[in-house]
Amino acid sequence: MGISQKALLPFVLILLSLFGCGDDQGMSQSFTTQNPRPADFLDQEDADIFVLNGIVYSNAEGLEWVSEKEYTLGEKVGEITEQAKKAEEFGHGTASQLPVGTSIFKTNTVIYIAVVNQREIRYIQMIEG
């Protein structure tokens, strides 16, 4: 019993469509984002940043919404252990302007506080996404 070419054609088309609908393996594009790095800021001579746990924090005192936001000082989350001007010298606890020994505190908001000579300076995380 043989299959006619007319009957075989729909079967072949169904098979082709099934195999054609599979995953594009290697054909799809994927995009990744990463958080800003010290190098992204240090091209500005007056950059005021520090790094804790791989996250860059930037001085936010010039941002109106940050300066208007009320907060409650929370727990200490870090301390500045060194200063650097070159991106490759940055690691945990490194700052571009804050003095060594500066304590960093969380708040009940997105704002972090660096305390220098009893003055509270507002910083925010530089996170992508």
From TrEMBL:
Record has Signal as a keyword: yes
Signal sequence, start to end: 1-22
Alphabetized UniProt keyword annotations: Signal
PROSITE patterns tied to this protein: PROKAR_LIPOPROTEIN
Superkingdom assignment: Bacteria
Protein name listed in UniProt: DUF3221 domain-containing protein
Annotated source species: Pontibacillus chungwhensis
